[in-house]
Amino acid sequence: MEPIGTPEIxxxxxxxxxxxxxxxxxxxxxxxxxxxxxxxxxxxxLNFDVKRAAILLGPRRVGKTVIVKQxxxxxxxxxxxxxxxxxxxxDAPIYSGISLDKFIDFLPHDSGDKRRLVIFDEIQxxxxxxxxxxxxxxxxxxxxxVASGSAAAALRLKSRESGAxxxxxxxxxxxxxxxxxxxxxxxxKLITVIGPNQYEAKDIDALNSKFVDYLNFGGYPEAVLNxxxxxxxxxxxxxDIIDCWRRCKSA
Length: 251
What we know:
- By secondary structure, this protein is α/β, with parallel strands linked by helices.
- The chain has two domains: 6-171, Rossmann fold (3-Layer(aba) Sandwich); 177-250, no CATH class.
- It is built from twelve helices and seven strands.
- The strands form two sheets. Strands 2-3-4-1-5 form a five-stranded parallel sheet, with helices on both faces. A two-stranded antiparallel sheet has the order 6-7.
- Strand 2, helix 4 and strand 3 form a beta-alpha-beta unit.
- The chain is elongated and about 60 Å long.
């Protein structure tokens, strides 16, 4: 089998970066509910004054890809040139075996002092990713690098060993109960804020019922928002999350 060449890779890159052709692209994820952690992560990921890569860690299906797509939307709104934003999902088969520095070739190198944003989604699929990413951070001070990864424990260990002083980690947990209520639109219906860190249940029985739903499948945005997933929550949680985590851990 012949290796996939640069033209094929460019086609995939351009398809995944529609904002290169449209300064105001429609990014569907920008309309989704923001996680309560989003603002904090955005301030870290879009801080071009700090020469570190922002690493978004967390279990599968907690919304990492949605967050990085929302980040792209907000970066464009803040004035970052869309043509200087690159997104690549490293788990795509077409990218197998490609080092991270090859992706930089798809961005204009003669961008003057303009800021560039490069996002590597599911970066754990690249062997020795931490070495490649550390080198990019050192080599391109005008570029802000963001990466996400699902094998959280392994990524944290690698980033501490090889990325000291180059990576800033951000752990994204599953939904909190408060986020679950916000996602389904029941937060104001069931809870009253009576003071700083003080809350009162409007209907304790209804709130307890929602808490049971949260325990069953509420930690994952897809399970909350997709009725079909809720109908088969056991398969979603076991096969898509737990079994995949075991495979990633043993890889």
